[in-house]
Amino acid sequence: MEREQVYNFAPGPSTMPDSALKTAAAELLNFRGSGMSIMEISHRSALFQDVFDSACAKLRSLMNVPETHEILLLQGGATTQFAAIPMNLIEGGTADYAITGSFSGKAYEEAKKYGTAHIAANTKSGGHDRIPSQEELSFSPDAKYFYYCANNTIYGTEWQYVPETAAPLVCDMSSDILSREVDVSKYGLIYAGAQKNMAPAGLTVVIVDKSLAGRELPCTPKILSYKTMIETGSMLNTPPCWCIYMLDLTLDWVIAQGGVKAMEERRQERAGLLYDFLDNSRLFKPHALPGSRSYMNVTFRSGSDELDAAFIKGAAERGLVNLKGHKIAGGMRASIYNAMPVEGVKALVAYMKEFEVSHV
Ligand SMILES: *Cc1c(COP(=O)(O)O)cnc(C)c1O
Questions:
Q1: CA torsion angle for 21, 53, 208, 237 (degrees, to 10)?
Q2: pLDDT tens profile 262-302
Q3: pTM of the model
Q4: 1 pLDDT exceeds 80?
Q5: Each residue of 310-326: b (16+ CB within 10 Å) or e?
Q6: So what's the pLDDT on residue 360?
Q7: Ligand 1 interacting residues, C-beta cut-off 6 A
Q8: Which is it for strands 151-152 and 157-158: parallel, antiparallel or unpaired?
Q9: Quick check: bond before 11 cis, omega within 30?
Q10: Percent helix / strand / coil, the chain, rounded to 5
Q11: Which letter, b or e, does each residue of 17-54 get, where b requires 16 or more Cβ atoms within 10 Å of its Cβ?
Q12: What atom of ligand 1 comes closest to residue 195's alpha carbon?
């Protein structure tokens, strides 16, 4: 099968822009006239520093990151941040956690090791099919921060508002960063594993208010200290060079498409096509409730495990691949990140219609 014949709905690692992959392929053996691959040069070289600075500058401009905040490009994935966040910010005190899915639950479990983690809300009883309202959030008086996950990749729900609280906001934006406009100045810390919407796996973007750095617990490994990483320009050790290069190329593509605003318009179009169909379907039911629905991961099921399996198999035969839901959620999940063309979603909806007609 050729790449052109496939729409890849994988949740992460996931589809990347063709232009980024093509540039990487063209430059693979000879990076900008150096006679070496980007993978073969020192992270301390001027050649690589240019790539690093370029990626940071593009991200800062695309997301309007204020000068009060530092952009760190780190290793370890989003999961490392589950521990790094409390180690750096909880100071042996209390932090509030909204549990709206699997990853925020894991972050909460990690935080308990370093301080008092208070559950501000938990949507588990409803199968994580919604986002709590502002009124439902319970805050502790002296919370060091409020933690939430903006988009729940597994269950397909997404916060449609920014929670209001006195404590600094800490947010996992792994699966919706760069897909919508965000007022970064409202956040103490934003982080994202890159492999959903930005780059290959192995890179984590952390955007941190510099005034929050330097509060780490004494046991915090140097490699996890925001203060150290700010001081060393993310290069205490070797950063994920290849991923940073791919991030730079992906950001070129985002800029060429019209920036984050264009990404936001497109995500509305893509998700709109799917939810409009699902709301009128006689076979498929969306998992997430209106008002809480993700624009990035659309979860749905037919109500029968056999039909779900037949649907996923038939879709793959048509080049609509990786639609199987996460094992803890079941059913189907269409992950429609920035790089998914609207045509991919139209092809999926056309197949859903066809499948529905022959199975109802
Ligand atoms: C994928 C994902 C994670 C875990 O990312 P890793 O880089 O594999 O640690 C955490 N949070 C969210 C929202 C995710 O989508």
A1: 90
A2: 999 999 999 999 999 999 999 999 999 999 999 999 999 99
A3: 0.98
A4: no
A5: ebbeebeeebbbbbbbb
A6: 86
A7: 12, 77-79, 103, 149, 153, 172, 174-175, 193, 196
A8: antiparallel
A9: no
A10: 40, 15, 40
A11: beebbebbeebeeebeeeeeebeebebeeeebeebbeb
A12: 7
Q: How far apart are CA 280 and CA 297, in angstroms?
A: 19
Asked if 267 contacts 46 with a C-beta cutoff of 8 angstroms, the reply is no
E strand residue ranges, the chain:
7-8, 69-74, 94-99, 116-122, 146-149, 151-152, 157-158, 169-172, 187-193, 204-209, 285-286, 297-301, 320-321, 332-335
Nearest CA to ligand 1 atom 2: 174
- Whose CA is closest to 155, among 312, 10, 327? 327
Q: Ligand 1 pocket: which of 174, 189, 195 to mutate (most atoms <8 Å of CB)?
A: 174
Is a pLDDT exceeding 90 seen at residue 251?
A: yes
Instruction: Give the H/E segment covering residue 317.
Output: helix 305-317
